[in-house]
Amino acid sequence: MEFTQIPNLKNKVSRIGLGTWAIGGWMWGGTNEAEAIAAIHEALDLGVNLIDTAAVYGFGKSEEIVGKALKQYGKRDQVVIATKWGLSWKNNQDVYRDSRKETLIKEIEDSLRRLQVDYIDLYQVHWPDTLTPFEETSEAMHQLLKAGKIHSIGVCNFSIEQMESFKKGGPLHSMQSSFNLFDRQIEKTELAYGIKKSLAILGYGSICRGLLSGKMSKDTQFTGDDLRKGDQKFQEPRYSQYLDCVEKLQEWAQKKYQRPVLALAIRWALDKGVNVALWGARKPGQMKDINTIFGWKLSEKDFQEIDKILHETLTNPANPETGGPPNRK
């Protein structure tokens, strides 16, 4: 395992973090609590010490499962809990952005209760709420930091301009954005900014909703409310192109480094400058290949060869997803 530092945290953090959106079930076709807890325990046993969750994942369900898993596992002082706030909802639907101070006061207590802890290591604003001044949100989070309820402050899905505004109200320790081989729109912008400003950078979607796992085929079925049913990359004729690209990346990684494509996908994100690559798993066994990610690095020539495969294979790539939940009314 490789480790990195998140400013203001005493423990070093594993460069692989467990992402738990799918564990909440919402937009992922449901969840299995026993399997999810077993997956969390396995990740911890494999050396992963950062678990990333959010209040809105499963409308509290993901945080509750993480809380149960950690209560059973123990060693709270060795685990870095990263969660998010700032998305409100009504009746387990109608999600909207809300980063007002009064919302924060309620949300922090709800998250502490669900997680069964008395502090959160990294507390992050989930999406920018443009109806609330970022400085106001930052000041309110700074008060929580000084009170010891949170130990570091982060933002997710913020632009450079929004992060600059946020920093006027208090410290900013980390940023989190979507970043993977197929979705790399932040590479020259927010990622470069985070590196320059010495922020800890968390990248979510490292294996692109499972597409870069090497486990998908044309026969893979997405059921219920699974968000991949509406993702352009998983719709024909693009889906076949992406599967073909994954196959060619698999051949390249196997021939050059004797590694699976999943390891290539995560190594790529790490070597591009992401401090922590988030790996979503909700069943034991899904992280069993974690050791294949370490002990090697990609060169500049490797990056060029990988880009060539993408350019030749993806003749009609999907547009990057933008937007996220709407602002509150």
Give a description of the structure.
The protein is of the alpha/beta class and 329 residues long. The protein has one domain (3-214, 263-290): TIM Barrel, CATH 3.20.20. Helix content is 35%, strand content 15%. The protein contains nine helices and twelve strands. The strands form three sheets. It has an eight-stranded parallel barrel, surrounded by five helices. The chain has a two-stranded antiparallel ribbon with strand order 1-2. Strands 6-7 form a two-stranded antiparallel sheet. The longest helix has 20 residues, at 238-257. The chain is globular, with a radius of gyration of 19 Å. The protein starts with a strand and ends in a 16-residue tail after the last helix. The model has no long low-confidence stretch (mean pLDDT 91).
- How many domain modules? 1
Average pLDDT confidence is 91
Helical/strand content category: alpha/beta
Fraction of residues in H or I helices: 25-40%
Largest sheet: 8 strands, parallel, barrel
| Low-pLDDT windows of residues | none
Order of helices and strands: EEEHEHEEEHEHEHEHEHHEH
Q: Could you tell me the strand content as a percent range?
A: 5-15%
Radius of gyration from CA coordinates: 19 Å
CATH homology superfamily name:
NADP-dependent oxidoreductase domain
End-to-end distance? 45 Å
Under CATH at level 1, the class stands as Alpha Beta
Instruction: Count up the helices.
Output: 9
Strand order of the largest sheet: 3-4-5-8-9-10-11-12
CATH-scheme architecture: Alpha-Beta Barrel
Please give the number of β-strands: 12
Examine the coordinates and then state which fold CATH places here, giving the name of the CATH topology. Answer: TIM Barrel
